[in-house]
Amino acid sequence: MYPGSFKNLIESFKFFPGIGEKTAERMAFSTMNLEDTQIQFFIKSLQEVKEQIHPCKICNSLTDQEICPICNSTLRQDILCVVEDAKVVFLFEKLGMFKGKYHVLSGLISPIDGVNPEDIGLEKLIDRIKNENFKEIILAFKPSIEGEVTALYIKKILEELDIEITRLASGVPIGADMEYVDALTLERALFDRKKIE
Amino acid sequence: MYPGSFKNLIESFKFFPGIGEKTAERMAFSTMNLEDTQIQFFIKSLQEVKEQIHPCKICNSLTDQEICPICNSTLRQDILCVVEDAKVVFLFEKLGMFKGKYHVLSGLISPIDGVNPEDIGLEKLIDRIKNENFKEIILAFKPSIEGEVTALYIKKILEELDIEITRLASGVPIGADMEYVDALTLERALFDRKKIE
Questions:
Q1: Residues B42 and B92 in one domain
Q2: Distance (Å, rounded) from C-alpha A140 to C-alpha A182?
Q3: Which residue of B has its CA nearest to A2?
Q4: Tell me: the pLDDT tens digits for A76-105?
Q5: Which domain holds residue B13?
Q6: To the nearest whole angstrom, how far is the Cα of B154 from the nearest Cα of chain A?
Q7: Which of A121, A146, A187, B163 shows a CA-CA span of 20 to 30 A to A197?
Q8: pLDDT tens-digit map of B33-58
């Protein structure tokens, strides 16, 4: 019913997770209102991203160089923040409060989804930790069963090394109303309670 | 902070209305997970849509031919459905319950946004109505001030012609709880009440 190439564009938008039929249609119609220069810029960006962007050889974060600027920097502290996704690296960098280095896994261990320890690139992480001289490893996974399992698994492997392993604090989000905080989070907040100094 | 072409891709997604920084970032990261063939298909669709899709010479709906299949059809009834956007044509066609023809305006009259009668292509519509032989003109605009103003304006111009002009029914949506229906809609539903036959 839609003209052929228009239908194809709708299908293309549906490649993206979270984009369903309606949103894809809306975006395809919006495309008709874009300037030629915008379409050309869009096409060029898609081409260049696919050609130039790849995982950093050291930390797996996204970069257009062989080794990303963070791994290349001599100003970074000897603290390694392990994350489940390159997205988290850029999120942390945007906040700008972490001055160490990163290591990006390919997700979290999730046996129920068929994701086993050997699937998320742990070997490369362990090798790196053994070869570089980190004072601390922060396991910055999301608070979830998968996050816990992955953190415990890594902690067990690294036990033999004399290195501090930490996780992010979990608890009541700043500004949240207590009544809207879920039970598991409240339980964790209680368990992780801090002494008021 | 993001690599150059990755940043450009984020900016490209932000060209689309309703896509903000966060969604654009999420889509750019998702792009990294697409197959090469998907990216190529996406790029080809964007190029072809821009090259091939344009307004139908007669009705302004989107088509990759000079005249769209609906305008070209001899099976369509002599009823003209006037809409504010090509999107509505495809929505109606998907539902498949309208068998007449369409005419797409460039939006609705909205003096507050600086959109005056001469900006929405009314001249072409009036010419078409005068030259073709329609039994009825349905003004299928959204129920809003702009929709009302545009409908009244068109009705006034067509007054001299002996042609039936109708609008879509407004009222309580099927399945809606009365308490969640807004006051204007209820008022309209009451005003447009139908005799139970």
A1: no
A2: 21
A3: B90
A4: 999 999 999 999 999 999 888 899 999 999
A5: 4-52
A6: 26
A7: A187
A8: 999 999 999 999 999 999 999 999 99
Contact A45 B3 (CB under 8 A): no
Answer whether A94 sits within 8 Å of B49, measured CB to CB: no
Chain A residue whose CA is closest to B45: A9
CB contact under 8 A, B94 and A44: no
User: Cβ(A76)–Cβ(A82) under 8 Å?
Assistant: no
A71-83 exposure pattern, b = at least 16 Cβ within 10 A, e = fewer: beeeebeebbbbb
- Tell me how close the Cα of B156 comes to any Cα of chain A, in angstroms: 31
**Testing the interface with B: which of A16, A62, A64 to mutate, by most B Cβ within 10 A?**
A16
Same domain, B85 and B162: yes
Count of the separate structural domains present in chain B: 2
**Length reported for chain B:** 197
**Rounded Cα distance, A123 and A136, in Å:** 18
Q: Taking a contact as any Cβ pair under 8 Å apart, which residues of chain A between 83 and 122 contact chain B?
A: 85-87, 90, 93-94
B21/chain A closest Cα distance in angstroms: 12
- Mean pLDDT is lowest, of A47-56, A179-188, B68-77, for A179-188
Asked whether the beta carbons of B84 and B107 are under 8 A apart, the reply is yes
Contacts of B25 in chain A (CB under 8 A): 87, 90
A130 within a domain of the structure (yes/no): yes
| ipTM value greater than 0.85 | no
Q: How far is CA B141 from the centre of its chain?
A: 9
A72–chain B nearest CA distance, Å: 14
Q: Is B36 helix (H, G, I), strand (E, B) or coil?
A: helix
Q: Does B191 touch chain A (CB under 8 A)?
A: no
* Pairing label, strands A54-55, A62-63: antiparallel
Give the pair of three-digit tokens for residue A99. Answer: 């001055």
Flag whether A197 is in a domain: no
The answer to whether A69 touches A88, Cβ cutoff 8 Å, is no
DSSP assigned state of A183: H
Which CATH number characterizes residue B19's domain? 1.10.8.420
